[in-house]
Amino acid sequence: MKQSQMFIPTMKETPADAESASHQLLLRGGFIRQNASGVYSYLPLGYKIIKKIETIIREEMDRAGAQELLMPAMQPAELWHETGRWDVYGPELMRLKDRHGRYFALGATGEELITSLVRDFLNSYKKLPMNLYQIQTKYRDEKRPRFGLLRGREFIMKDAYSFHDSAESLDKTYWAMYTAYCRIFERCGLKFRAVLADSGAIGGKDTHEFQALAEIGEDTIAYSDQSNYAANLEMAAVLDTDASEKEATQPLEKVAGKQEANEQEIIAQAFKTRTETVVVFIKASDEMNDVKLKNVMATDLLEPIPADFNLMKTDSNVRVFADNGVKHLSQSVLYNKFEDVTYLHLDPERDLNIVAYDDFRFIKEGDPSPDGKGTIRFAKGIEIGQVFKLGTKYSEAMNATYLDAEGKAKPLIMGCYGIGVSRTLSAICEQYHDEGGMIWPKSLAPFTLHLITVNPKNEDQYKLSEQLYQQFVDLGYDVLWDDRKERPGVKFADSELIGCPVQVIVGKKASENIVEIATRKDKARNETQAVSLPETVDQLLKTLD
Amino acid sequence: MKQSQMFIPTMKETPADAESASHQLLLRGGFIRQNASGVYSYLPLGYKIIKKIETIIREEMDRAGAQELLMPAMQPAELWHETGRWDVYGPELMRLKDRHGRYFALGATGEELITSLVRDFLNSYKKLPMNLYQIQTKYRDEKRPRFGLLRGREFIMKDAYSFHDSAESLDKTYWAMYTAYCRIFERCGLKFRAVLADSGAIGGKDTHEFQALAEIGEDTIAYSDQSNYAANLEMAAVLDTDASEKEATQPLEKVAGKQEANEQEIIAQAFKTRTETVVVFIKASDEMNDVKLKNVMATDLLEPIPADFNLMKTDSNVRVFADNGVKHLSQSVLYNKFEDVTYLHLDPERDLNIVAYDDFRFIKEGDPSPDGKGTIRFAKGIEIGQVFKLGTKYSEAMNATYLDAEGKAKPLIMGCYGIGVSRTLSAICEQYHDEGGMIWPKSLAPFTLHLITVNPKNEDQYKLSEQLYQQFVDLGYDVLWDDRKERPGVKFADSELIGCPVQVIVGKKASENIVEIATRKDKARNETQAVSLPETVDQLLKTLD
After folding, report:
1. B46 located within any domain
2. Where in the numbering of this chain does the Aminoacyl-transfer RNA synthetases class-II family profile domain appear (chains A, B) (predicted)?
């Protein structure tokens, strides 16, 4: 494609309101334009990349046995009433009223719609399992859209939904999707981790998030430096590895007021659930992780409350837990606010009414990895995908049942699997750029080759360029030819912003049939004979991601 | 793909509310499902066809030099205020309010948005022309959605917008798009006509609609039986071919009341524009065409009024026109209601104050074709595409200007070009079906081959089918294998509904390696040896559309 005829509105200056590298460079390189807060157009260059990502997704989803369909963005409110989400979803769900006064949601997600589509057809175990996906525009009215495509209000998503007659069947598809996602993100060139995530108290059990590693990411990932282990910070299990013998026990000592001591301090955190009060003792140097307590107690509500009661003589309707880290202590110090007294030489096992020990703290960098291999490190991640065992939440609410082999009606067991397509583009930008602009991986580059004619008014340069352009197009390369009558500085700056993997520069030595070749990554230019260019480009591409 | 694992919810009965063949068969064949009035899901089979249509569109648009982008469906109301269309568009424009109370239109069309995108960049004649397109979901809140995908509220459209610095440049792109559209619809296998259409009084000049021929169509097309001439009924010019000598003139005769006479009757139709009153005389046997009068008078408002004034002595502020058909009359009869008098032997030229003759009537079947070749016939059409010279309507309203070679700011000259993708699918259905279901053209069939195992529990049948399935997949065919444990009647009925071009039936003679082959179109089955099947299928496909 001739650059003079293409719509690539590059920008010299960094837009003031673009905070992340991906947002800045996608705007500056003419890949996207903002139409409203959180609402973007994909310009020709950007949309070429989106389509390449979509093709990879389609190929891997089809390979994994999923079938593509396309559902509407307009979803009747009645369906969302069936699951109660019309009221629960809040202002993030975009809503509209048609000319007859009927309400619709603009799809933020598709569980209700897909369940309504299949519920009459998937009426027998013989028709299961079934896995359906779509690549579609989604809507979410984010309160504070930011980072460009990373948190937009209209965005492209791949969402898939599977239907099963057993937990084993769901498990099989779940891991098939997990594998497909790994392949998709690998083919996109992304550095990512599949991390254990929290499924919430309601809904299914297993869930993994796919996190692209990037400083700008809003999630912290705990990963092993020696294995594939990775988990969301809140989900990473802490090993109960302390096998040390307890020290000799001293008698409990009671001192007025809050006192410093040379012993391990423990603290108490109190919570209320819907039905009871609980206290958790934990080392003061550790951080309490509510999610773990929620999961242990199987509750969706946990409200922190002040621990303003006697920690030493908790009454019988307060359950007392302690973190595993407290188990082996015998010389600890605890301030009991209720009495305004500090206890020294406290042995939790001896002195507190602990009913059970468990893992209640956040993992820390340097902790051993829960899989026993290596040490935990932290990284920031951008969530680009998620696989999720939904169970029967939606099928029960919407009465989507199948008949099993005995002719008994049972709710369909469901899984759902999402990929943020526009987010994936942002994540790739965060990982593949330098100060000058984008450095696209080969698999996604809008053009493989950027042919730059330094001075197209010079006949030698123009003719050689034209000939090379045609030659590479005939060889099947996607070539962007900068034939514009612009200053060389403008051309080279634009070429950096656009970020094609290989640049071929036709300049002064065109009359000698000599051109320069460089990769976008290291920028070092080498002279080469025009005749040997196809071979040189081919060789060079093999060295690139 | 194994049919047992595919989501193809066929229906035995014709849905009561589906009026057209395309609507009925798309539902019955499991291609689409309705989610709300005018809102549909494309199920896996239907979406496969949509994607094939989209691929053809992309290839031809790219070949014609257009660039693909993707704009959002959410369009800020401010843009629609700039052109005034927020108020003009009426209830067909879907609107929504975000959580901050800002209004958006859900794109029914994209002129405002694209103009806002390019107006800063296309600032010089050097960057012109530019042609940008997208394939996108569009929204139109139709009062009465009907015929399934034919008049939906959420639908897929290809819309393109071109920008120019001269009428000649626009003309060139206009005809390039015209040619691309012909290629697209030909590749889709459609019988269609590109017809001259009315551009309306406001906006551009040239416009053609692409009409797929179908009885269900809402538009009447006038076409020549001997040339490519075709026009919307309202636009078809009537040739002024009457070269007959006037008959000898008799004196005008005046008779009281309304009288019958053996002469050609003429009538008068009166209209008011914003500024004047006009009368048009026309043969009583012809039908007045307001659109032609509007265009002759260059007005967008024309209100029919009673002709309750003296037709013989029209006062000077009433302009009097006559249709060409009146020009050669000398023996006509006219009833003047104002006087309650019938005039006989009236010679319009002599007796009426006619200032000009022109073409003011609708063309009729049997009229000579306006291009001088053949005779006019009528047909019904479904509008599947339109090319349109917009001129400067939007660029002027939105201040989208470029600098010409002299450095003078001028409004961009625009064209726009639409294809209804989901409508095209419906039009194909209308043209390619029989009572049993769809008969897809090769270029769009969801699968080329339908392999039907009559009894999959029979080992010979299953093994031979499995072997043939693999063989054809390896040969690059798209094969649907009906491996379901259903009754043969169900299988054959479904196969008719689904409509793959070629069917291979593996039945009782599987043990002898003999199968049956048939085309969906003529259904006649022929036995063939399984070993020669690839060759037979190949031959058969060559005979099909």
Report:
1. yes
2. 38-441
